[in-house]
Each structure stands twice: as structure tokens, then as C-alpha cells.
Design brief:
524 residues, alpha+beta, Glutaredoxin, four-stranded mixed sheet
């Protein structure tokens, strides 16, 4: 009996310890759940990292244009849940919201199920929702309206109709609002049997472009001198069209103009492009180009085709340290001439910051560039000519490129390294007070690689990086999002029959056997 109080106290202590352990366990579980909700990391385990945002998208989300905002950019996903890409779009947009650190707000609705909210948005943005789906990107700030009233220019001859006739206005959509239709996110090919087939899905490209353009509020313009360019390549497509499609996602419009009709480059030009020139600029047109280039912050993008030799334009470029040569960059392997040039992006120049050291290939014909890097006469004039793309050492510039059996001749050919692209900077880029006023130029000696059947992702990344560098948006230079390819599997009727037997008979039979085995064990 004397041990009974001691045992009671011992049992009480043990119960108290158990109670404390349970309380501590509950506290740990609650704390772990709270912390995991507030701070967590996601891992994309897909083979192609399809749900990870690209380097370029992350740079847009980290750019001052977005981070300096007091209000987030609103993205409204209005897709029916039955849409095949609804789940992917939802996941990708959540990743935008998470990586934007509160500067992107996401709303997801199914117009068919949330009819009241859909009607409210339809009235606000004056749109109609369809089963195809719609994404609204709203970058407005403050009390800015979705639509603004703008005056309508009156035709001549109505001045006597009264004051009310001259006060007409119309509604104009805010420049900070963008709509993405389902057509903007998909790439189709024409099929004679089915009409159109979905080839690829490019949601990140389109969404990032819409965010950038809605925040900037206007489209940047690079004027392309259409009347001087080779309009068609061998495959029937224009090089400038490939560039235009790529720059569209950088919020840059490649706008055709005819320099023959101009007296000066338009004042709203963010840059001027000459792509695959077929004819030369005459003296008047060269004066227009030189006057523009002499201005602060001028930007030129010049891309030659391998057979083009416009003398006036080459003379202009030679004065700034870059001259396209009359040759072909080739190599010979087992007696076979190879024109597809393997090259690398040089390390150092800012325009190559995302691609430095990477290798690529350029299909089609290429010429080499003579680049007078660090030439004393250029340095004295505050001009820098910098190589951007260098062919590998097996390639040389062949002057007798029409020969059926070309071979390297040190007396007439250009030894490695052969350069395919260069940057030119005019002005004092090292002086912080004057750095914003420098003029920039990109020169390329090849354009055949822009054929849609030949173009490579890394080469389009270089085009985009060049455009952003020319426009002073160095912080946006990065690797662009990759498209999601749609793969089709073709089965024979016998193979379809085999798969049907497995799914309808074999798999249920296996499940039934497992259930019978488990029931037999428990019965004992």
C-alpha cells in the first residue's frame, strides 16, 4: 500500500509527458503547415521543364517597369474548364503570380459556370466570351478607364453643320489593356484533310508579351525599308516576316516603309532595319540614313543576304569598321562542300549576355565580315566595332565560291575565324552622363537561316537580344520561352484493338485478382 501514492505520481507524470508530446506534435504540425503555405519551393519534374518560366519572362517580371508599380498587373483567365489547355494555363499563371512577388494578380473564371462574373467583365471590357477562351491582361494604374473618349477627325465640308458636329468623339481602348484570343496562343499548320492542325502551344510567349506591352503602354517601332529588301527567299517566305513574328513577342513592331517616299526617318522610330537588301540606296536615301545615324540614340539593324553587294551601304559600314566581304563561309569534308556554318556567340558584348559561349548553326549561304576591332582611327572617333558571332575554326571565307571543288588558298581566302555578325557603338559608352546618348548598330552577313524551315531557337534569341539591346532594354535580354510541340501518335487498327483489350479486360482482371487475394488473407 505504501507504493500506491508513488505509482500514482509516476503515472500522472507519464500522462503529463504524453500530453506535452501531443501538444508539441500539434504545434509542430500547425507551424509546418503555416510555413509551407507562406514559404515554399516548386520543382518542375517534366522532361522539358514545360511549367518553368523562361529566363526572359523572369527578367520581365523583375524589371523596374513592373517592380516599381504600386498596383499589380491583373490577368484574367476566362477559359472553360473543358478546354484541353485550361489546367496548363492555370498552373503557368500561378507561376507568374508567385515569381512576380505581388506585382501580378490572377483571376480564373469559367464563363459558362460563373455567368454573373463573366457578364460583369463583358460589360467592363466590352467583349464577348466564347468557348475558345480569352485572356485579359490589364496593366492600368490608378483610376484610368478601360476606354477613353477621343475626338473624331471630321471630313471637310461639314463645318456648317453646327457645333455638335465638331464635338464628336469615339471610345478607344486603353493602351494598357491587352486581349489574348486562343488563336494568339496556338500555332497551326494547314492540312488538306482536316483544314488546320495544332502544331504547338506558345502561351508563355504571348502572356509575357502582353504583360510587357500593357505595362509600357505603347508598341516600340522599328521601321523596315521594304523597298530595298529581297522580299522572297527560295522557299517563298520573307526574312523580315520571320523577324517580325519574333519581335512581336518583344512588344516591337517591324513596320514596313518605303525610303523612296521619305524625306527623313519618322520621328517615332525606335530603330531602322535593312533586311536582305536587293538594291542599293541612292545618294539621297543614304543622306537620310546618315542624318538619322548622326542623331543620339539612333539604332540600325542591317542584315545582308550572301549574294548582295550594295556598294553605297557597304561604303557607309566600312567607315564604321564593319565591311561585308564578297565570299562564302564554307568548309570541306570528304570532298563535300558544307555551307551550313557552325558558330559560337562571342563572350563579352552585352548583347550576347544570355548566349555567350553557346554554339549554333546557320543554314543556307553566309558571307564573312571584316571587323576592324580596336582600330586606332575608330577609337579616336569614339567608335567600337565588336564581333558577335564567330564561325568555328574549320570554316573559312572562300573567294572562289563558284568553284566545284573549293579549297583554302591563303593568298585569296579569309582564314579562320570568320565572323558572321558584329555590333557597332558610336559615342562614349563609358561615360555615365553620355551613355544614354550613344548610337548602336547590328550587322549580320547572312539571312538564309531565317527560313521558317531552317531557323533555330538560339538564332531567334539572338535577333530578339539584338533588338532589345538596340532599343536600350538590356535588362530584358534573355532566352525566350520555348514552344510546346503537339505530338501525334499513329496506331494501326490491330494495335488499337490490342490496347482496347488491355484496358477493358486485362487491367480489370488484374484488379479483381488483387482484391480476391486481399479478401482471402483478411478472411483468415
Amino acid at each position: 500500500m505504501s507504493n500506491s501514492p508513488a505509482k500514482s505520481r509516476s503515472q500522472l507524470s507519464l500522462n503529463l509527458v504524453h500530453l506535452i508530446q501531443i501538444l508539441l506534435f500539434i504545434i509542430v504540425v500547425v507551424a509546418a503547415n503555416f510555413l509551407s503555405c507562406q514559404r515554399y519551393a516548386r520543382k518542375d519534374l517534366t522532361e522539358t521543364t514545360s511549367y518553368s518560366l523562361s529566363d526572359q519572362t523572369l527578367k520581365v517580371l523583375e524589371n523596374d517597369l513592373l517592380t516599381s508599380r504600386t498596383e499589380p498587373v491583373r490577368i484574367i483567365l476566362a477559359y472553360p474548364r473543358s478546354h484541353p489547355f485550361h489546367s496548363r494555363l492555370k498552373t503557368v499563371l500561378e507561376e507568374y503570380r508567385r515569381r512576380a512577388d505581388g506585382k501580378v494578380d490572377i483571376e480564373i473564371i469559367d464563363p459558362g459556370r460563373s455567368s454573373d462574373r463573366a457578364e460583369e467583365l463583358a460589360n467592363q471590357y466590352r467583349i464577348e466570351f466564347t468557348q475558345a477562351g480569352l485572356i485579359i491582361v490589364d496593366g492600368r494604374s490608378g483610376d484610368e478607364a478601360v476606354f477613353n473618349e477621343v475626338p473624331v477627325a471630321q471630313p471637310e465640308g461639314i463645318a456648317g453643320l453646327g457645333a455638335e458636329a465638331n464635338d464628336r468623339t469615339q471610345l478607344q481602348l486603353s493602351s494598357h489593356v491587352r486581349f489574348l484570343q486562343a488563336e494568339d496562343l496556338a500555332l497551326f499548320s494547314v492540312n488538306s484533310a482536316t483544314g488546320r492542325d495544332l502544331d504547338a502551344w506558345q502561351d508563355e510567349d504571348a502572356i509575357t508579351s502582353a504583360i510587357l506591352s500593357s505595362v509600357e503602354g505603347k508598341v516600340r517601332k522599328i521601321y523596315y525599308l521594304a523597298d530595298k529588301s529581297d522580299q522572297k527567299t527560295a522557299s517563298g517566305t520573307s526574312p523580315w516576316e520571320t523577324i517580325a513574328k519574333s519581335l512581336y513577342y518583344q512588344n516591337i513592331a517591324l513596320t514596313p516603309v518605303k525610303i523612296a517616299d521619305l524625306t527623313s526617318i519618322p520621328a517615332d522610330a525606335d530603330g531602322v532595319a535593312i533586311i536582305a537588301p536587293e538594291s542599293d540606296l541612292d545618294s539621297r536615301e543614304m543622306d537620310i540614313l546618315k542624318t538619322y545615324w548622326a542623331q543620339p540614340r539612333a539604332s540600325l539593324f542591317i542584315m545582308f543576304s550572301a549574294g548582295s553587294r550594295p556598294d553605297n551601304l557597304r561604303t557607309f559600314l566600312r567607315d564604321y569598321g564593319v565591311t561585308p566581304r564578297n565570299d562564302r563561309v564554307i568548309t570541306v569534308n570528304n570532298g563535300r562542300t558544307i555551307n551550313t556554318v557552325r558558330g559560337t556567340f562571342t563572350v563579352g558584348p552585352e548583347v550576347n549576355s544570355a548566349l555567350a559561349g553557346r554554339s549554333t548553326s546557320f543554314d543556307g549561304r553566309s558571307s564573312s565580315l571584316d571587323i576592324r576591332e580596336n582600330a586606332s582611327d575608330l577609337v579616336n572617333r569614339r567608335i567600337s566595332a565588336i564581333p558577335l558571332i564567330q564561325a568555328t575554326d574549320q570554316f573559312w571565307g572562300e573567294s572562289d565560291y563558284e568553284s566545284p571543288e573549293p579549297s583554302y588558298d591563303p593568298s585569296s581566302d579569309i582564314a579562320a575565324p570568320a565572323y558572321l555578325a558584329a555590333a557597332v557603338i558610336q559615342g562614349n559608352a563609358n561615360d555615365d552622363a553620355l551613355a544614354d546618348d550613344i548610337s548602336k548598330m547590328i550587322v549580320m552577313s547572312t539571312s538564309d537561316f531565317l527560313d521558317p524551315q531552317k531557323v533555330r531557337d538560339e538564332n531567334l534569341d539572338f535577333i530578339n537580344a539584338s533588338a532589345n539591346w538596340l532599343l536600350g532594354r538590356e535588362e530584358l535580354i534573355g532566352i525566350a520561352p520555348k514552344k510546346i510541340s503537339v505530338r501525334r501518335m499513329t496506331f494501326l487498327s490491330s494495335e488499337i484493338s490490342f490496347i482496347t483489350r488491355i484496358t477493358l479486360f486485362l487491367m480489370p482482371a488484374i484488379a479483381l485478382l488483387i482484391a480476391a487475394f486481399v479478401w482471402n488473407i483478411r478472411r483468415r
